[in-house]
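stage 2 :: seqdesign
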């Protein structure tokens, strides 16, 4: 069963960010200094995608602590995998964002 973000879970986050003149994409992108959290490639602000480290379908929450900036390639490849499953798929022990907090 596919889960979708409800407007109820997104609205408070988006409202709070907008009140401060921020966007979710902008905050996630800034936290990684414009890099993909997974592979470390530089991603232009207008091309960044957002990914839930713990996917919603696996109990992850739609909150800033669970959302990272990602390049389109990594976001598509990770899909709804857990971080451990994606690490295994990529044959890495740490993602770029874990080494560059």
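stage 2 :: out
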């Amino acid at each position: 069963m596919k889960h979708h973000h409800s407007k109820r879970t997104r609205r408070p986050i988006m409202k709070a960010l907008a009140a401060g003149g921020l966007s979710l994409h902008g905050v996630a992108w800034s936290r990684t200094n414009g890099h993909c959290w997974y592979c470390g490639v530089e991603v232009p602000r207008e091309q960044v995608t957002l990914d839930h480290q713990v996917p919603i379908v696996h109990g992850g929450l739609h909150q800033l602590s669970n959302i990272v900036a990602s390049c389109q390639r990594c976001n598509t490849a990770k899909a709804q995998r857990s971080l451990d499953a994606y690490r295994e798929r990529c044959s890495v022990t740490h993602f770029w964002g874990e080494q560059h907090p």
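stage 3 :: structure notes
- The chain has five helices and two strands.
- The beta strands are 49-52, 67-70.
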